Amino acid sequence: MRRLLVMALVATSLVAACGADAGGSRQSSNPDAPLQVVTTTTVLTDFAAVIGGERVGIYGLLKPNVDPHDYEPAPADLDAIAKARVIVKNGVGLEEWLDDTIRSSGTKATVADASEGITVRDLPAADRDAAHDHGDPHIWHDPRNATRMVTTIAAAFTAADPAGASVYAANLATYVAALRSLDTEIAADIDTLTNKKLVTNHDAFGYFVDRYGLTFVGSIIPSFDTSADLSASDLRNLVTAIKAEGVKAVFSESSLPAKTAASIAADAGVKVVEGDDALYGDGLGPAGSDGATYLTMMRHNAQTIASSLR
Ligand SMILES: [Zn+2]
What does UniProt give as the signal peptide span (predicted)? Predict the structure, then answer.
C-alpha cells in the first residue's frame, strides 16, 4: 500500500515537471551578435557560449532543471528558430519534438547534430521500441564525447560565420584542454573507490559509468525515458539488488522528483543523496548552483559520487 502511494506521488510530480513552464528570459543572449544560434539542452547552451564567445547570440530552448525528454516548444521558441542561422541539437533521439518545430518555423538554419562521430551506447532491449531505438542520448557524461561535441559546434559556427573562424578555433583549443584536465581529474577521483556500485534515479549515467569503471546496479525509473511507468515489482527488485550487491547510496537527480529515491533508500537501509547534492543527469542547474556550467556540473557529479561511495 505504501509503495502504491509512493508511485502515485511520483506519477503526479513527473507530470508536473514535464508540464512546467520553462520561464526565464525568452530572447537571444546577444541579439546584435553576428551569429544567432538556437540550442536545445542547457549543456549545449553552455558549449555554444564557450565556443562562440561574443560573436554569438544564443537562445536556449531548455531551461535548467527542465526534462529534455518531453519538451513542449513555446511560440517564442518558433520565432527564435526562424531567425537562427545555426541550430545545435544533442541528437540520438533526445529531441523528438524538434523536427516538427523546425519544419513549422520555416527556418533556413543549418542543424548541427552534436552527437556526430560519437559511439552511441545501445539501449537495453527492454527499453527499445519504435519511438526509442536511437540508443542512449546522455552522451555528454563522458568528457571525451564533450570534446567531440564542441568540435562539431565550432565547425558549424565557422561554416556559418567564416569571419569568426579564428575566434572559434582559439576558444575550442582552450576548452578542449579544460575538458582533458576534467577527465583526468575525475578518473583519478573515482579510481580511489573500492565500492563503485551506482544506483540512480533514471538511466542517465551510462557513459559516465563506462568511462570511469563504475558498476551500474540499477535505476529507479527503469528506462532512459523519464516518463516511463514504474511498477511495484521493479521497485522491489531494485531494493533487493541494493541489499544483495552492497550498494552504499541511492542518488536522486536535480530534474526529477526525489521521493521514490528516498523511499527505496529507506527500504534498503542505505543513504539517499538528494537536494543540493542530487546528481545532474539531464542537464545543467541554474546560475549559482554547482551545476551552472558543464565543467562544474561534472565535478559536482564526480565528487558527490566519490564522497558518497567512500
Ligand atoms: Zn535523461
Answer: none
Quote the CA–CA distance of 98 and 75 in Å, as a whole number.
Answer: 13
Distance 68 CA to ligand 1 centre (A): 7
Instruction: For domain 23-185, give the CATH number.
Output: 3.40.50.1980
Where in the chain is CATH 3.40.50.1980? 2-15+192-309, 23-185
Summarised one tens digit per residue, pLDDT across range 62-113 is 999 888 887 889 999 999 999 999 999 999 999 989 999 999 999 999 999 9
Closest listed residue to residue 184, CA positions, set 196, 172, 176: 176
Question: 223 C-alpha vs ligand 1 centroid, how far in Å?
Answer: 9
Span between the terminal Cα atoms of the chain, in Å? 34
| Cα 240 to ligand 1 centroid, rounded to whole Å | 24
Please report how many Cα atoms fall inside a 13 Å half-sphere around the Cα of residue 23, on the Cβ side.
8
